[in-house]
Specification:
Blueprint lengths: L1 E3 L1 H11 L2 E7 L3 H5 L2 E5 L5 E6 L8 E2 L4 E2 L2 H4 L2 H7 L6 H9 L4 E5 L2 E3 L5 H13 L1
Parallel strand pairs: 2-7
Antiparallel strand pairs: 1-8, 2-5, 2-6, 3-4
Length: about 130
């Protein structure tokens, strides 16, 4: 669940005319170890995505909010052929990051990952309180 400035995300997408992923600063190492972690270059572009790394290389997690260009979409079949057992959406982004330019948008706001019964209950409360 996301509560972010959607207008800022859409404006940056329109200006970039490129694939783009959402990134968020996360200082909790345990959370980073359970997330996709983004490695960025000096201009904020995605260099590599690490799926649930034991030793996170940065403090940027990559919540699964992706905008894929036509160029990126054309690569999906090749990615699936290269790694047919990859099941997390981050595997596609990691594969693409090695082949095409992917920009990042730093998230401002709140997010809640719903991945188990406890987080589902927290999500219900989060929605009621907002």
């Amino acid at each position: 669940l996301f509560r972010i400035d959607w207008n800022a995300w859409l404006a940056e997408l329109e200006a970039a005319n490129s694939s783009m992923v959402l990134v968020a600063q996360e200082s909790d190492r345990a959370k980073l170890q359970r997330s996709g972690v983004a490695e960025l270059d000096a201009r904020g572009r995605l260099v590599r995505l690490w799926e649930k790394p034991e030793d996170p290389p940065s403090e940027y997690c990559c919540p699964p909010l992706y905008w894929l260009s036509v160029e990126a979409l054309a690569e999906i079949d090749a990615c699936r052929a290269a790694d047919p057992d990859a099941d997390a959406p981050g595997h596609l982004i990691a594969w693409l990051a090695e082949r095409i330019e992917i920009r990042t948008h730093e998230m401002r706001g709140e997010r809640l990952d719903v991945g188990n019964a406890a987080s589902y209950a927290a999500a219900a409360e989060w929605l009621r309180s907002h």
